[in-house]
Amino acid sequence: MTTVSRFYPIGTPGTPWGEQERQQWRTQIEKKRDYHTEVVSKIQALSDQFDIEQYGEISYHPERLPLFCLKSKDWSADKPVVLITGGVHGYETSGVHGALLFLETEAQRYTQHFNLLVAPCVSPWGYEIINRWNALALDPNRSFYPNSPAQESANLIALVASIAETILVHFDLHETTDSDEQEFRPALAARDGLDFEPGSIPDGFYTVGDSAKPVPEFQKAVIDSVRKVTHIAPADENNQIIGSDVVQEGVINYAMKELGLCGGVSDCQYGTTTEVYPDSPKVSADECNRAQVAAIIGGLDYVLSKLD
């Protein structure tokens, strides 16, 4: 586990950021990787297997980044929908590439049972700069509510609202990284004019369920599937993970809708937010991607057992 205390260099301690501080933060941002090369090309390569639709775009001048989703070709009103979202936090790489790997390798065996709707990179600007926030210094994963100021969240909300069929399952694919503690939590405290309170990063995979409908057996199926690929995060000395009580091995719960989280974007019966730990010396990038795939498989196999 990593524990770090760090002063953030932008803003005045105790004073929330204004537009000047946000602009100062933006001037430090540099593009580190290319969304079109690394993500859009992989999406387009799946056009023979899935219908590809542009459901919006991110328009931070001068960048214009299209948002794509992939749908089952045999979409049917008689089948429930499985929603898979990745890259809500653009820097969480295996969320994006885990969703694409699932489509490439495993998805077809589920299409007879489910309509698949996959938005593999909800925050392409964040993907390119490897950051948690969007260009307004907003966290898209705290912005899933009506009239959202985050383009990333608003576009996905509109996409989900356009689906007439029942969304039964939602996998929101995330990572918890050392940079959360080293960079993003200090930045959040500075932005909001608060004191930064150091925490710790769990070494291993865990999931976040919805406290309003926790479906523990579904979460267990996800954890049991992932442990075949990577290790599960242990609870800390307070029986917590990132400050939340562990309700079963590798599982904590959040109030998804109340907190404006992507996991609350639909009224699904079965939902989980996955959290891979890519900075562990015990895993590779490929294992992180495969852990995301394992999470989806474990959850879908469980749901299928309940539909029989």
TrEMBL record:
Residues 31-300 form the Peptidase M14 domain. One of its GO terms (molecular function) is metallocarboxypeptidase activity. It comes from the Bacteria. Pfam families: Peptidase_M14 (PF00246). One of its GO terms (biological process) is proteolysis. Signal peptide: none annotated. Gene3D superfamilies: Zn peptidases (3.40.630.10). The active site is at E275. Belongs to the peptidase M14 family. This is Zinc carboxypeptidase. It comes from Vibrio xiamenensis.
